[in-house]
Specification:
Elements: E1 11-13, H1 21-50, H2 57-86, E2 90-91, H3 93-126, H4 131-134, H5 137-164, E3 172-173, H6 180-184, H7 192-225, H8 230-259, H9 267-291, H10 294-307
Parallel strand pairs: 1-3
Antiparallel strand pairs: 1-2
């Protein structure tokens, strides 16, 4: 108990992969997924910025999702890679706080942005005559701003608490980044009241938005089922199913991790679930949401023709 009054010092991140042949293989796969996510999201954000045909609410939301995913994975994976390659797993209190803040801000913002995107598709398909009013650029900008602000405020509260509680056990965080639930296991005070606030914020940022997305796509599928064109129905079903799959990959592991009490958590399970929302989802989003989109692929082709007109 000699460190009871010490609220913050350097931490040790135990990491995700063992230092073995199997661990090296898994690390290389994670690094490859990160590079795909990095290039895919960067390409998407630049395409939407540079192509005037994509300057509409739907693609503004897509560009924000790409920026969020780009920043999200970059907050976690480079540090994890450096720790694995160098063997130095220490992280300062300030570094841990910053990583936790950006992780929670970007995670909360992405959860709300995915909800905004589902609402956009709901209005476009179920209320097409009202789309210009209910999803104009001003409304879209307000949605994006609100998503980032709410994510930041939620992150500030959680990060401030995590950095100001006393730690009296080992400084080794059994995770590959500064995840607040993993940090709480090192605390030497009862954190039940804070765990309740985690439950509430998880419900607000993950459970309720996920239910809203499911309801939105449910209404979309109901509207599509009444369409006479079989090809259009098939395309809409395919799009909705893939979108819901990616959304589930993001929300379900996140919610499962943060809704469980501290006594029910397993470090190995938490780390495996975190791979979904820190590495896999940022890699899949540009493929599912964007690269399968004809307007986006058309913009990519036009950009390629401008850069390499001789070879295209």
């Amino acid at each position: 108990m000699e460190h009871h009054n010490q609220t913050c010092a350097d931490f040790i991140l135990l990491g995700l992969f063992p230092r073995s042949g199997a661990g090296l293989l898994l690390f290389l796969l994670a690094a490859l997924a990160f590079l795909v996510a990095l290039l895919g999201n960067l390409c998407m954000a630049l395409l939407i910025l540079l192509d005037a045909r994509l300057h509409c609410p739907m693609y503004l939301l897509l560009s924000q999702l790409a920026v969020t995913d780009l920043s999200y994975s970059s907050t976690i994976v480079p540090k994890m890679a450096a720790d694995f390659l160098s063997g130095n797993k220490a992280i300062s209190c300030t570094g841990c706080g910053l990583q936790s803040f950006f992780f929670l801000t970007l995670g909360g913002a992405e959860a709300l942005l995915l909800t905004c995107m589902a609402y956009d598709r709901y209005v476009a398909i179920c209320c097409p005559l009202h789309y210009a009013v209910r999803m104009n650029r001003r409304v879209c900008a307000l949605m994006v701003t609100a998503s980032w602000m709410m994510g930041s405020l939620n992150s500030c509260a959680h990060t401030a608490y995590a950095l100001h509680i006393p730690y009296c056990r080992s400084r080794a965080i059994d995770h590959f980044f500064c995840d607040v639930p993993a940090m709480l296991t090192l605390a030497c005070v009862d954190t039940w009241a804070y765990e309740y606030t985690v439950f509430v914020s998880t419900a607000l940022f993950l459970v309720l938005p996920f239910l809203g997305i499911v309801c939105s796509y449910g209404q979309v599928l109901l509207a599509v089922s009444r369409m006479h064109a079989g090809e259009g129905r098939k395309k809409a079903y395919s799009t909705c199913s893939t979108h819901l799959t990616v959304v589930t990959f993001y929300y379900a592991p996140f919610a499962y991790t943060y809704l469980r009490p501290k006594s029910f958590r397993s470090p190995a399970e938490d780390k495996a679930l975190a791979v979904f929302y820190t590495i896999l989802t940022p890699m899949l989003n540009p493929i599912i949401y964007s690269l399968r989109n004809k307007e986006v692929t058309g913009a990519l082709r036009r950009a390629t023709q401008r850069i390499c007109p001789v070879y295209v």
